[in-house]
From TrEMBL:
Transmembrane segments: none annotated. InterPro entries: Flavin_Rdtase-like_dom, Split_barrel_FMN-bd. It comes from the Eukaryota. This is Flavin reductase like domain-containing protein. Residues 70-230 form the Flavin reductase like domain. Belongs to the flavoredoxin family. SUPFAM superfamilies: FMN-binding split barrel.
Length: 272
């Protein structure tokens, strides 16, 4: 894939952001799909798969990175606030992020590393055991992206981004006031990954954190304080390269219940 040309010129050639294009539901791709019928079209049959060996001799690790971030999509973004042991604030987005459990609330964060050069956020979490995780929405994506800047250690991304630190209740790192959903969290465990080609080299750190309390914008959550409205949250995700994704369309599909489905003749026939 070719590198981007001069980006200001490239972006100017594209359509303006359509703020009116907001969340809506559609039907599923095939409303007539029936049990046992497989994919909803046969286009996939006209293409072959190629095998990629991530450890193939001569294949640089960066190719695995490019492959994975363009394949594992869309990825939620953990916008992490941390404070170093000497009190320096840090704010940065990470798309190696997800939830792993709800009772207790458990979240995972992945940090790429090279040798001893771990990211400030990772170092801060490992040293202090505290962080906040904030969900990025459309209304502050530009500021959040600026926090991905490759600044030297100790630079305060809060000042560079113009975002607003809000006091947390149980941990020292502030949460992002602009975020509609923020999590105060503590470190539970971590694991350092070693290179397969050079076992002496650290290549990343997995952090497991437990959510302690949440901060939710009142207009985004329902009256039962149980579910957020995606049309108001306007979450942003990461795709491949430097591409972000909007969440503006979806469809619903009920999960099948085996006890009900097994009574259908067509299901029984498939399992005979």
């Amino acid at each position: 894939m070719a590198r981007h040309p001069e980006f200001t010129q490239l972006e100017a050639s594209r359509p303006s952001f359509d703020a009116e294009n907001t969340w809506k539901y559609t039907q599923v791709p095939d409303i007539h799909w029936r049990v046992g019928s497989g994919a909803n079209n046969d286009e996939w049959k006209s293409h072959k798969k190629v095998e990629l060996n991530p450890y193939e001799e001569g294949r640089p690790a960066v190719n695995n990175y490019k492959t994975l971030i363009s394949a594992i999509t869309p990825r939620p973004i953990g916008f992490v606030s941390s404070v170093s042991k000497d009190g320096k604030r840090n704010l940065a987005p990470f798309s190696y992020f997800n939830m792993a459990n709800h009772d207790p609330p458990i979240f995972t964060l992945g940090f790429s590393a090279s040798g001893d050069q771990k990211k400030d956020t990772c170092n801060n979490i490992l040293e202090t055991g505290e962080l906040t995780i904030n969900i990025i929405s459309e209304w502050f994506v530009e500021a959040a992206n600026y926090c991905a800047i490759n600044s030297p250690p100790g630079v305060d991304e809060w000042k560079l981004s113009g975002l607003t630190p809000a006091d947390s209740k149980l941990v020292k790192p502030p949460h992002v006031a602009e975020s509609a959903f923020s999590i105060e969290a503590k470190l539970v465990a971590h694991h350092v990954w070693k290179s397969k080609t050079d076992p002496t080299k650290d290549t990343g750190v997995l952090v497991i954190a437990e959510g302690l309390t949440f901060h939710v914008r009142e207009d985004v959550i329902n009256e039962e304080n149980s579910q957020l409205d995606v049309s108001k949250l306007k979450p942003v995700s990461r795709l491949g390269g430097i591409t972000y994704g909007r969440t503006i369309e979806g469809y619903e599909k009920p999960r099948p219940n085996y006890a009900t489905e097994i009574e259908k003749p067509e299901v029984k026939e498939l399992l005979e």
